[in-house]
Design a protein that fits this description.
Length: 193
């Protein structure tokens, strides 16, 4: 159920910002952005900081890898807005749409290195089942993933399990392909702040 608050629950300055964004981008402000501007002291500021650190902070994972993780977690959750947004961003980051689509279609046969495949498998299991075993962690580490990479991937997983649930709860509108491409361009240039 879409809550009307995403359409009108903002201060005048924020409404003006949204109008300027729409004017210059030619696209409406995505609901994910609208949500962080609604009650920023309660959710938005903290969410932006955490998500930006997970997605753009120092990491051995590339920006493309982390965007692919976000898309994969969102696919496991079945969240259309986030699947499309992060598929577009991963595709743009990698400059390889086929690779991204292959992962989302069939991780087992996708053309990715084993450390990333093992990490995505782990994130998929955690997202679907809500738990991991010591054996799951040993498997990821045996694939050549460092402990820090595991922590970084888990931060991406936490950020997008939260965002996916908010997207579903608030009924985020799915943008046009052009809207998602514009959003991907923005995310790669500016990050999540």
């Amino acid at each position: 159920m879409r809550l009307d608050i995403l359409n009108r629950g903002y201060r005048p300055g924020t409404k003006l910002l949204f109008a300027v964004i729409r004017l210059f981008s030619g696209h409406p402000v995505p609901d994910a952005a609208k949500l962080v501007f609604y009650r920023p002291g309660f959710y938005g500021d903290r969410a932006k900081e955490f998500t930006h650190e997970a997605m753009r902070g120092p990491s051995a994972w590339s920006v493309g890898d982390r965007e692919l993780m976000a898309a994969y977690v969102s696919k496991v959750n079945g969240t259309p807005f986030c699947i499309a947004a992060h598929t577009a961003t991963a595709r743009r980051a990698y400059q390889d749409g086929g690779k991204v689509q292959a992962v989302l279609d069939d991780l087992a046969s996708a053309p990715v290195e084993e450390p990333l495949r093992a990490t995505l498998r782990m994130l998929g299991k955690l997202t679907a089942e809500g738990t991991l075993s010591a054996g799951d962690m040993r498997e990821v580490l045996a694939a050549g993933v460092s402990r820090q990479q595991v922590e970084d991937a888990l931060a991406v997983c936490a950020a997008f399990n939260t965002t996916d649930r908010l997207s579903d709860a608030f009924g985020f509108e799915v943008l046009s392909p052009e809207g998602f491409e514009a959003g991907a361009k923005f995310l790669l240039k500016r990050g999540y702040r």
